[in-house]
Amino acid sequence: MKVKDLMTQDPVVLGPEATLEEAARRILETRYGGFPVVDGEGRLLGVVQVEELLPHPENVPFSDVEALQLFGEWVDEDALAEIYRRYQRTPVKAVMRTEIPKVHPEDPLGKALKVVLTTDLRHLPVVDEEGKVVGILTRSDFLKLILGRG
């Protein structure tokens, strides 16, 4: 099998200037865990996943304290209003992953499976020769294939 046989064609994408609020709402509406981020021509710039939208616990430098960081800044875990304001003004390009593997429609499906199994990327972009996003593969796609529902 080839990537094109399992991928979802014409996936939902975001532009780099879309806000984190827009990305979060789209994730909740579609129930997808992330999206490719593309330029005006549809070329892949990166991927934003739900993990990039959530605060991360980090050790405060020079102490034993663990606090939350959001988009590189410390936040009070009770400050939801401030977090929401940051979502409204921060573009996805500020938090998207840019160093991401990608596959092509004609690649063997095994190549894509290896990428999914050896990285924490849950949404593997499929690009054509020009770097334009033509599809997406998810971990769930492989589960469906294994269960005979691909």
From TrEMBL:
Residues 7-65, 96-150 form the CBS domain. InterPro entries: CBS_dom, CBS_dom_sf, Diverse_CBS-Domain. SMART domains: CBS (SM00116). Signal peptide: none annotated. It comes from the Bacteria. SUPFAM superfamilies: CBS-domain pair. Keywords: CBS domain. This is CBS domain-containing protein. It comes from Thermus thermophilus (strain ATCC 27634 / DSM 579 / HB8).
